[in-house]
Specification:
Length: 544
């Protein structure tokens, strides 16, 4: 961000691999807050259990009680939380407001003065589709909304606020708003001095450890990083900026929620439509040394035919391109998706320029909604087509220096049943967003390697030019994924050797199939993706 400080206080940066490490650190951050606590999350569940000894010593059992404890201590707390489109994702929209009721229950016993320390902004960021496009799809969307409302009522479920609005008589005109962009960032800041940022939301589903010894739908590999000093302060400034932008450009169903529950003790920040000052993206996105905050911040579009927001601040995309372009020995990536043609082309260019460069990519075997929920929509199949195209091109051009991998655990699973099984073992779900090059530069963020995270969604992360931090992060991840039974060639001194070591381990585990032991890497199942993928000429790649 313009004016953001670049810090070199990297001795305080702490890699946090899986929620086993991240959740206790997050809890301790909240407990150490004295005056100000900011939480920017995609998903938040107050029922998430606490894991730290510090929380347990105070008899704090879950995150609802943890937030209540901060309020009781007088900590001014702001929660910036994403909402989901009521028609496009009704179950996730309903879950947001059901969990807010749980948060309300947690803070309700507090004195009124303590409750006023909490302000909640739960909203859709600006960036809905254009009027012409919404008019075109409204007849179908209107029928879908009526069907969803009927299903909720038939099951005796309370309507969430986004569906309760004019539920008894859905108007034919005007078409309802739809929300294609999300607040996808995940970070916490205490007193502008301590922060944790990365890919991990606060939800019980996210809890896992590096062994991943649980059923496939319960696994979750993720990475966050704890930072302090100027970097934490810059994340606090980013929070302020997002808070102001969402209040000025976003939309919230909080007024309807409060009207449905007048006794709700939560105080919601109001949406106040107004112009907001925006600044252009500084160059370069990557610091020459030290650590900097990087973000994706789109802006609302004006075209009546737009699908979503307009790309504006794309620091994380620029930072990934810089990292790849600067790499001389190796690039290591972890992501939930690999769909961005811009990132793909940057990697192709770098590998083409430098025959000494090797690249390794860690992905889930399939997106969670496909593997665990059986989703087969055109949007999901198009997303898989984009990923298949990227992997095909890189494999065809640089098969001796590029490879994609997945993780499986120790549990046997019949792979004919679902796509969460790979080579006779249960897939470990990879949700991390990490990039490392040459043990010199590292990125940890909330942004996937897809057009949505690079251009449309609100994202946050850190970019570090520091050999100690980058190497320690890479070593921690490789130790978790390939173990330490046999020495791994140093990827800076011998990138071909390290690349071959990964390939040998993955091929051996693939051949072992159901007999493989423990948790480890396997080759990405590209043929499965090919069978599922389907091109869609009408959907922009930023949507997936």
């Amino acid at each position: 961000m313009r004016g953001a400080r670049v810090t070199d206080e990297l001795t305080s940066a702490q890699p946090l691999v899986t929620a086993e490490q991240a959740f206790p650190a997050m809890e301790e951050l909240v407990l150490e807050a004295r005056e100000r606590l900011d939480l920017a999350l995609h998903i938040f569940s107050p029922r998430t259990k606490t894991r730290s000894s510090a929380a347990h010593s105070r008899h704090i059992g879950d995150w609802g009680a943890l937030i209540a404890d901060a309020l009781r201590r007088g900590v001014r707390t702001r929660l910036l939380l994403n909402d989901f489109d009521p028609v496009g994702a009704p179950e996730m929209h309903a879950a947001v407001w059901e969990r807010l009721r749980l948060l309300a229950d947690a803070v309700k016993p507090l004195p009124h003065g303590a409750r006023t320390h909490l302000t909640v902004l739960v909203a859709h960021p600006g960036g809905q589709s254009g009027m012409a496009l919404r008019t075109l799809i409204w007849p179908v969307a209107r029928v879908k909304q009526a069907r969803i409302v009927s299903q909720f009522r038939r099951k005796g479920r309370n309507l969430p606020p986004g569906l309760a609005e004019r539920a008894d008589r859905i108007p034919r005109w005007p078409p309802r708003r739809n929300f294609t962009a999300t607040l996808h960032q995940k970070f916490l800041v205490a007193d502008k001095s301590l922060a944790i940022v990365g890919g991990l939301d606060i939800d019980e589903r996210r809890y896992d450890d590096p062994d991943h010894n649980r059923s496939a739908p319960e696994t979750w590999h993720d990475v966050s990083v704890g930072v302090a000093g100027g970097t934490a302060s810059d994340l606090a400034d980013h929070f302020d900026r997002c808070w102001n932008i969402v209040r000025a450009e976003g939309a919230s169903h909080a007024p309807t929620f409060v009207a449905m529950d007048p006794d709700c003790p939560l105080r919601f920040a109001a949406i106040e439509k107004r112009s907001v000052l925006r600044t252009g993206e500084p160059k370069p996105a990557t610091p020459e040394k030290g650590m900097a905050v990087a973000a994706t911040l789109p802006r609302p579009g004006r075209s009546p035919f737009r699908f979503g927001p307009v790309a504006d601040l794309c620091q994380l995309e620029r930072a990934h391109l810089d990292l790849i372009a600067r790499a001389r020995r190796y690039v290591y990536l972890e992501s939930q998706f690999f769909r961005s043609s811009t990132i793909r082309d940057g990697l192709i260019a770098a590998l083409g320029r430098n025959r000494a460069l090797h690249a390794m990519l860690l992905l889930p075997g399939a997106p969670d909604v496909i593997a665990y929920e059986g989703e087969k929509s055109g949007v999901q199949r198009y997303g898989e087509w984009l990923q298949m195209r990227s992997l095909n091109r890189l494999t065809d051009l640089f098969g001796d220096r590029f490879a994609a991998y997945c993780i499986t655990n120790d549990r046997t699973r019949e792979e004919e049943i679902e796509r969460d099984a790979l080579y006779g073992k249960s897939m470990v779900y990879v949700h991390s967003k990490v990039a490392i090059a040459d043990d010199d530069t590292a990125i940890v963020s909330s942004a996937n390697l897809n057009g949505r995270s690079m251009r449309w969604d609100t994202e946050a992360g850190i970019v570090a030019r520091d050999a100690t931090f980058a190497a320690s992060l890479r070593e921690a991840l490789w130790r978790a994924h390939i173990g330490g039974d046999t020495p791994t060639p140093d990827p800076v001194d011998d990138p071909a050797g390290a690349f071959g070591h990964w390939r040998t381990i993955a091929d051996a585990r693939r051949i072992a199939g159901a007999e493989a032991n423990g948790t480890g890497i396997v080759p990405f199942p590209l043929e499965k993706t090919r069978r599922f993928a389907k091109r869609h000429i009408l959907i922009p790649q930023e949507m997936v």
